[in-house]
Amino acid sequence: MKSLNRALLWLLLLLGGAHALGQNISGSVVDQEDNALPGVNVVVKGTAKGTITDGEGNYSIDANEGDVLSFSFIGYENQEVVVARDNTINIQLMPGNEQLDEVVVVGYGTQDRSSISAAISSAKGEELQKMTTSDLVTSLQGRVSGVQVSQSGMNPGDSPIIMIRGISTFNNNTPLYVVDGAPVSDITFLTPNDIANVQVLKDASAAAIYGSRGSNGVIIVTTIKGKRDKLSITFEGKAGVQSFAREPLIADAYEFEHAMAQYNDLDEPLPVTTNTNWFDEVRNDPALIQNYSLSMNGGEKNTKYYFSTNYFSQDGIIKGKDFRQLNARLGLSMDLSKKITLEQSFTFTNSLQNPGTGSEPWDAMRLLPTDEIYLPEDQTAGKNEYSIYQGTSADVPNLVARIARTDQSYKTNKIFSNTQFSYKILEGLTFKSQYSFYYSTWQRNQFSPKYFIESSDNNPTASVSREHNIRFNYVWNNTLTFKRLIEKHSFSVMVGNSIERYQHETLQGSGNEVPHNTYELRYLDAAVDGYRTKGTDHISSLASFFGRATYVYDDRYFATVNFRADASSRFSKENQWGYFPSFSAGWNVANEGFLENLDWLNVFKIRGGWGLIGNQNISNEAKLTVLRSQDRDYISGPNGDRRPGAEPEQIGNPDLIWETVEDRNIGTDITVLNSISLSFDLFDRLTSDMLMEKTVPHHLGYPSYDIWGTDGTVWSNIGSIRTKGWDATISYMLNRSDWSFSASANLTSSRATVEKMANPGQIINGIWDRLGYITRTEEGGGVSQFYGFEMLGIFQNQTEINNHADNSGDLIQPGAKPGDVKYADLNKDGTINEEDKKYIGDPSPDLYYGITLSARYKAFDFTTTLQGTVGNDIVNGMGWYTYNGNRGNSNLEKGAGYRAWNGENSTNLYPRLSKASELANFQRFSSQYIKDGAFLRMQDIQLGYTFTKALKTNSIRVYLSGQNLFTISSYKGMDPDLSGGSWGLFDRGVDWGDYPTPRTILIGLRIAFK
Question: What average pLDDT does the chain have?
């Protein structure tokens, strides 16, 4: 009994603290710019009692009058304050001589970076805001190790492709976004101007706390909050112009006719009567880009507020494309008592996107320069405004006409609300409840006018369609956190649960026979025939329980344990639950006594982690077999009557189980001389039971809804993939009174290997086009590597053709002529066939890197970011058309008409142009289409000057900036930074003439009032 009483006494002391009779002291801690400082150590000097400031810099601690409170934070000078009768003590810490050791926001809490044992990278909001863009993802490009962003092919308003540490799965590789503690599936409602900082959780030991949502990594976004200070107002405006960073390389009419003369064996080229540059006709550069923002924040003793509004406008560098977005955000924080805090944020976004036709650069490259755009005036009488265009000789319609008649727009409204309630039950014990919801309406309007250009390019009846999408998602999190500092021991335990629900409703309608093309009749009620409607409702939910325990001893040894259990409605009942543990530990060797004399060594930390994460990124109905009745009527009876029918639209798989990622990470963090830092990580990630839509033979009766209508698909667990690699960040920082300089570089290398397929010997072919399947994925190899024939050169004469023979003396390419491509007979069977294909390229870079340089001299500031890749390949997917003119039905790339083989030793790279050789020379996918994809790009550069205390303001800053000013690359296409297309992961590194990243030059003005 005495032992039990003694245990209860110790528990009460632990929860209540040793000085329960003292007064409660609370306040906030900010930096030199009045920004909140989370994670500041607040200790009653001479005792074991202490706490740390929360995510908004607030703290609360019991102390007696006359006690000394010590405030310490790595990178800042310590402060000590004697407690008087005042219960509120606000502190401003000034930078010290040590490098700033930031506080890291992790899942459902914060930690000092010094005690982090997982792989986490960070980016500050003020750095991200230097990019002029409407989305967060673009601003991360080249700034964070382990994060790869590709934005080529993105229309104004589109979101770039992002991956963390390379490929995790054949399925969706998009990371989870968490905004102020709330998981969201869409980040586009938030502008970079509202972001305070970003943390990227790269390994499972950090991301496992998010369970099934974190298998591709987690990006945690902390937004700007109000301050307990007088009102401050900031306005920033920037505007500029965009243009093509690289001119598209297409032949003019003279080169085209020269090539066609070779192609058709003519003695002389045909005379040129028309020389149309289709790119000049559809380009819209310089194109305007603008971004204006206004923010206000402030507060009093118990209240803080923040309001911002932002307008972003971007015209496309090709006609018919543009994007507009208006964003408003309101944040409010109230201390209802010493123990209760209530926070509310509300974000509204309205956007309008005109995406254009979708393939303008690709079409402009193929259209013939010898074709006219418009009909002669004497042939336009009686034609409507969409029928006055000339037909084309190419296998693509008149692009100028198509842009003129394209009427398609996307209108979006988004609302994000986040409510947080925090209650400090006891000293160090806090309950927090958070409810957030995301609501969006997405509307697509499309009108196809009546027109006639030629028999292959016309629309006899005008049609109209409208599509509505409504999404409503909510997340309700509840956590209980206990923290205690006892002498050199720091403990933290958090437990919680989460409920998430996602609902997506769609409604579509269309109609034909709109009586006129006028804008006043472009709505559904104007149609008089062909009405069609359809709609769906998709619902899924997730229930979760999670917990974390952390321990730190004397800033030397630290460990973290996470556990999460998720139940997803997307799986059948027997497979709904997934369990995801993780563990990480670290040792800061620099704090050991045997290194205490090494003043130059500030941090030397060794850390490692292991964890499991799940993936449930499948359709909500993947487990169900779904029937489709629309347009599935059948004919029966002697009169051929149409009767309602149905067929399987999707075959369900009730045996689906969780895709699981097992992740291992080991790393080190080193800081010397308070100015040079290195962070290095090795990772090994194994994804098992990968979820993917698997091809099912059509002859078995499965539905055929893949892109070619030959085989159906069903969701399946198809195998495993292992990704190994490393990432590193090295930085240097030097501060002086009048000037400062910093430089940082981040590098990432990853390699994915398919270890197992569900069916032995299974091969996944991807990207079928005129060249056939050009990627292959199979056991033991990489993901979507380029697979084709090996080009050995060009036959220069008949002797070389005769020498290219098998052991029996038979010609391997008997139909070849001088000037044709020589292919490798890899299997030595004496003929060139499918068995001679090999892996000829890889879209995955060996190295992805970014470099950032910053400098300040008095009132001048400068920053620039460069990014690029090394070791990746690009397929010129346009080459089938533009290398040879596609039998005269397509233009050529610039120079192709003059570089082609035209005699012995004229070239060993480019085959002759001849109808007789077109199959062998251009329609086989071979290494002639493979190009070096390495590049170095100036992502952004900015030069500014700040006027302080000018015009009764706190500061005025003017600046000039540029984005994508130059790209160094041997690849001659418009943009070597290629993202995936309609084939997703299996379309990487293939250039289809996508919309390129524009070059942008801007001027900006920032005014701060306080």
Answer: 86
